[in-house]
């Protein structure tokens, strides 16, 4: 019997698990995929929003601003990349200036500092490559960028180190309330728990509706993106938004914390909760609208494209807290944008509610910090020399595009909740995320996985389940 089970190991579920691990509770996270960060958390804009867009008084506004304020300290404590690069919202026509003023007023009401409207020559002093059609911008300096993979993994590893169990390849299939607990039937067996946290992304409505009379309905909103090479990474320094509509914040252009340039997403409401494919139409739309913001954006430097799904609830706000008619069942549902920005605050918000519900006491031995894998590409020559002296594998470069070494890949496999697939290594080290998109390094990463996991190469997958990388061998005894 567990005290709390979290369904879903995305950034929200892992943030909640990490905050719950501060308390003397028996905790577990159930995840249907083979790793953390396999859904929306791995396919988004990687933006920490300032908080000027959400309607004042909503949970989105409250969690966004609180999460944004937590980010500097968290990134240092948990050792993941974060940068406050600031964000700009573009206005292309003077008749739309009232829209910027609405955002500025929302920023003030939400407690977002230093937001202002800029016009004239200062626009291109801030960003020289913006379109000449831009007549005014909303400048929000507290906006930022983050690595969503590293952030999610950091929450999960720290939660694990503080006693949280993670059960992967464990898909929740049914939830029923018994006299004294919840019984969760999964693809890997039955789990019983006093409380449930529903952080299941686009499937959160399904689990809520199994136990609550207040039905939720989540629509997957598909967003397609284009990622550009690091040679384009300095094209803009801020995160560039277009004025938002009811479907979202429009096509953005932003640098990433790793030095690339990202543009997207589209916003298409769909019915298929697994449709993460890109389309020719969607990518064409991204390119067309990106050029409105910056007509000289070097889209010829694109190295890959991807799509993600945002879990949009019909009422338009986050659904957080205990269901009124299902005691012990706590929702973290409808977490669309600004979900990544809000995750740390959602973690605190729900953990406090659950701890109070269970009368849980805080641990005296909670470990709040963790260290990431040493990154050779970002290290000084002296730091690299020390790494190689300690472990020569840090001197063997495997991924040339991103300068990822064998030592980093071994670390990714052996650390808590270590990588078990090609994508698992990629998210932890960036091996395969460069210009050649793993064309050179994937066979070598596979060799390391085979050796360190002591499995046959035929068992290796790209991302778990049946995504096998090899169909057979051409020679015996391989």
UniProtKB/TrEMBL annotation:
Residue span(s) of domain BFD-like [2Fe-2S]-binding: 397-450
SUPFAM superfamilies: FAD/NAD(P)-binding domain (SSF51905)
Domain FAD dependent oxidoreductase, residue spans: 3-352
Gene3D superfamilies: BFD-like [2Fe-2S]-binding domain, D-Amino Acid Oxidase, subunit A, domain 2, FAD/NAD(P)-binding domain
Pfam families: DAO, Fer2_BFD
Protein name: FAD/NAD(P)-binding oxidoreductase
């Amino acid at each position: 019997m567990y005290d709390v089970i979290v369904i879903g190991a995305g950034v929200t579920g892992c943030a909640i698990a990490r905050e719950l691990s501060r308390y003397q509770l028996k905790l577990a996270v159930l995840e249907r995929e083979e790793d953390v960060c396999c859904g929306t958390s791995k396919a988004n804009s990687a933006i920490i929003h300032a908080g000027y867009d959400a309607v004042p008084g909503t949970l989105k506004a409250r969690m966004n601003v609180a999460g944004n304020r937590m980010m500097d300290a968290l990134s240092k404590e948990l050792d993941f990349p974060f940068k406050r690069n600031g964000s700009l919202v573009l206005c292309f026509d003077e008749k739309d200036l009232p829209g910027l003023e609405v955002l500025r007023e929302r920023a003030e009401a939400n407690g977002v500092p230093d937001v202002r409207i800029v016009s004239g020559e200062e626009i291109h002093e801030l960003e020289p490559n913006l379109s000449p059609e831009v007549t005014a911008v909303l400048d929000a300096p507290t906006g930022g960028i983050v690595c969503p993979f590293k952030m999610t993994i950091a929450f999960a590893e720290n939660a694990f180190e503080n006693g949280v169990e993670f059960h992967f390849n464990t898909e929740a299939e049914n939830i029923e309330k018994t006299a004294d607990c919840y019984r969760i039937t999964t693809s890997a067996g039955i789990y019983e728990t006093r409380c449930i946290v529903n952080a299941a992304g686009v499937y959160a409505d399904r689990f809520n509706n199994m136990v609550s009379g207040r039905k939720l309905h989540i629509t997957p909103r598909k967003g397609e993106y284009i990622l550009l090479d690091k040679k384009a990474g300095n094209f803009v320094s801020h995160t560039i938004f277009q004025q938002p509509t009811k479907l979202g914040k429009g096509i953005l252009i932003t640098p990433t914390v790793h030095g690339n340039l990202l543009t997207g997403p589209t916003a298409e409401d769909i019915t298929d909760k697994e449709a993460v494919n890109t389309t020719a139409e969607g990518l064409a739309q991204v390119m067309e609208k990106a050029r409105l913001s910056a007509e000289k954006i070097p889209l010829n430097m694109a190295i890959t494209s991807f799509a993600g799904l945002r879990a949009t609830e019909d009422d338009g706000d986050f659904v957080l807290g205990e269901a009124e008619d299902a005691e012990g069942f706590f929702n973290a549902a409808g977490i669309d944008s600004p979900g990544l920005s809000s995750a740390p605050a959602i973690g605190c918000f729900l953990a406090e509610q659950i701890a109070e519900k269970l009368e849980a006491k805080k641990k005296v031995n909670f470990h709040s910090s963790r260290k990431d894998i040493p990154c050779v590409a970002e290290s000084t020559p002296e730091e690299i020399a020390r790494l190689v002296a300690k472990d020569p594998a840090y001197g063997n470069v495997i991924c040339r595009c991103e300068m990822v070494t064998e030592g980093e890949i071994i670390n990714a496999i052996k650390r808590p909740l270590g990588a078990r697939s090609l994508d698992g290594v990629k998210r932890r080290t960036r091996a395969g995320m460069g210009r050649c998109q793993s064309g050179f390094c994937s066979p070598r990463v596979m060799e390391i996985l085979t050796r360190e996991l002591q499995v046959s190469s035929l068992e290796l997958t790209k991302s778990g389940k049946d995504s096998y990388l090899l169909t057979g061998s051409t020679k015996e005894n391989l």
